[in-house]
Design a protein that fits this description.
66% of the residues lie in helices and 1% in strands. The chain is mainly alpha-helical. It has a two-stranded antiparallel ribbon. It is globular.
């Protein structure tokens, strides 16, 4: 690029190393199995005989795996400054979630997660999404077998924003439109994935759209689509619409604030040792 200053590379709170990537892949693989086992297990599989117990099994396993991922990412560079920002953003997200609870899916926390993941990267985004959902569950009393699935889903949601292209060069309206489009699609994806976690708890005697362990995969897929249309389409639409509106109206201001805070925190600035044992720290 000529005639101007080169694009400044934005700071990231966490750089993903090989162990962090491996841990994320592991928890994602188990998460896919935990969410999608009704379609992955054949009708005669022994797992289907314990359809009501399977979500509890995966929930317990996911808690351990999410903890492993968080610990691994922490070893990759989640320093005190990043931990402080993680705490502030997680507290803000947890406080925002109850505002729209029960009101047509109008949940402003999703917009905060999208912009935070964008600025701070996929590693920080995954930890932030998971911790925010955990804190929110404690705040609202929403602790149950669904909580680990919410933590994983929100971790994916926030991490996806950090994986969007052009983190160092895409700015202005183009960036806002990209984030709004991602938030819109990811809001529906989050709702659909979470439907998988709750769908298997339904009793087939109570509803003809519940998961049937004796049915074929196409039949259960049709039941699941009907379940989504009947129970969450409107809710997911409200979540997606609010995420788009808040991103387009408040996104520029919040992105600038997050990037300024990240630069001031200087997450990646090295500590150098000078003469007489003095330590030079970034200002």
């Amino acid at each position: 690029m000529t005639g101007g200053a080169p694009a400044q590379r934005q700071a990231r709170a966490v750089r993903l190393g090989p162990r962090s990537v491996a841990a994320l892949l592991l928890v994602s693989a188990v998460g896919v199995a935990g969410f999608g086992w009704p379609f992955l297990a054949p009708p005669d599989a022994s797992l289907n005989a314990h359809a009501q117990d399977a979500p509890w099994l995966f929930a317990g396993l996911l808690v351990l795996l999410v903890a492993v991922v968080a610990a691994t990412i922490s070893e990759s560079g989640l320093g005190p400054k990043a931990v402080a920002m993680l705490g502030v953003l997680a507290a803000a997200g947890a406080a925002l979630r109850p505002i729209g609870a029960g009101t047509a899916g109008l949940e402003p926390m999703f917009f905060l997660m999208v912009l935070s993941g964008r600025v701070l990267g996929p590693g920080f985004g995954f930890v932030l999404g998971s911790v925010t959902m955990f804190a929110s569950a404690l705040l609202t009393g929403g602790v149950g077998p669904w909580m680990p699935f919410q933590m994983l889903s929100m971790g994916w949601f926030t991490m996806g924003a950090g994986l969007l292209p052009g983190p160092d060069r895409l700015r202005g309206r183009a960036e806002l439109l990209t984030l709004a489009a991602y938030g819109f699609l990811a809001a529906f994806a989050y709702g659909t994935v979470m439907n998988l976690a709750g769908w298997t708890f339904m009793n087939t005697l109570a509803s003809d759209i519940a998961f049937d362990p004796d049915a074929s995969v196409p039949d259960n897929l049709a039941r699941f689509v009907a379940y989504c249309l009947a129970t969450s389409l409107g809710w997911d639409g409200g979540r997606a619409a609010m995420t788009v509106v808040l991103t387009l109206t408040l996104g520029t201001t919040l992105l600038k604030a997050l990037r300024r805070a990240t630069r001031r925190a200087a997450f990646e600035a090295p500590v150098t040792f000078e003469e007489a044992g003095e330590v030079s720290r970034p200002t």
